[in-house]
Amino acid sequence: MSKSVFLAGCAVLGLLGQPAVADDQRTPRDLMIALDVSTSNVIIESDVMAAKAGREAAEMILTLGNGDRLRIRTFGSYSQSENPLRLDITISRRMPANRVAASVERLIASLPDLVESGRLPAGGTTHITAFLEEEAALLSCGTRLTALALFTDGIEASPSTSPERLASGQAALPAPNGDVLQGCGISLYGIGETTGGADRARTQNLIDAWTQWADQAGAFFQAFPKY
């Protein structure tokens, strides 16, 4: 990873952990929270894990200040019609961070119920890299501190990726189309935590694969196996 990407990543970490300062004294910030609703991801099945993910997301949102932008997305199958949740919110006095954080926390905590009731379709495949490259066109990593927080097991299952070979460390993720996320920060929360449980070797294989992919895409990467 280049020094410039590393420094950009360090700056992005401030988005997720440091309190906001006066609006006229800081760089505008963007946060995208992306929810993996594929059938292998534990947060669509476990109320406990969904609640933990919701609290984690709420803490991130509480660091945002007026003028910062929040995007909420679901992903799984490649078709956008199968990923209907797309919310774009600018934090303001009318939409303060604490109110938005509470709403998003409730939404994520309710994922198992939404999926079980059929109100939110679960995806049979997981096109994570395609989702990221598609969203990259809407991001402003070069001018705004931009963090992408994905709540996902990290297992890509697409025509170009065998989930079994990826999880076993025998195959890499499909290479990105250049440095499409140059300057962005990508964090995967719950990586390796599937509906069938977690496995240390599988989790490390996934972390290694995503570290390589993020480096090729020009992004700073962090992995958080536990919610």
Largest sheet: 6 strands, mixed
Major sheet: order of its strands? 3-2-1-4-5-6
Q: What class would the helix/strand composition place it in?
A: alpha/beta
The strand count comes to 6
Poorly predicted sequence stretches spanning 5 or more consecutive residues: 1-13
Strand content: 15-25%
Work out the helix count.
Answer: 7
Shape: globular
Which percent bin holds the helix content? 25-40%
Radius of gyration: 17 Å
Mean pLDDT: 87
**SSE order in H/E notation?**
HEHEEHHHEHEHE
Gap between N and C termini = 27 Å
Describe this structure in words.
With 227 residues, the chain is α/β, with parallel strands linked by helices. It has helices at residues 3-17, 47-61, 97-109, 111-116, 128-136, 163-167, 200-217, and strands at 29-36, 69-75, 86-90, 145-151, 185-189, 220-224. A 6-stranded mixed beta sheet has the order 3-2-1-4-5-6, sandwiched between helices. Residues 1-13 have low confidence and may be disordered.
Briefly say what this structure is.
The chain is an alpha/beta fold and 227 residues long. It has helices at 3-17, 47-61, 97-109, 111-116, 128-136, 163-167, 200-217; strands at 29-36, 69-75, 86-90, 145-151, 185-189, 220-224.
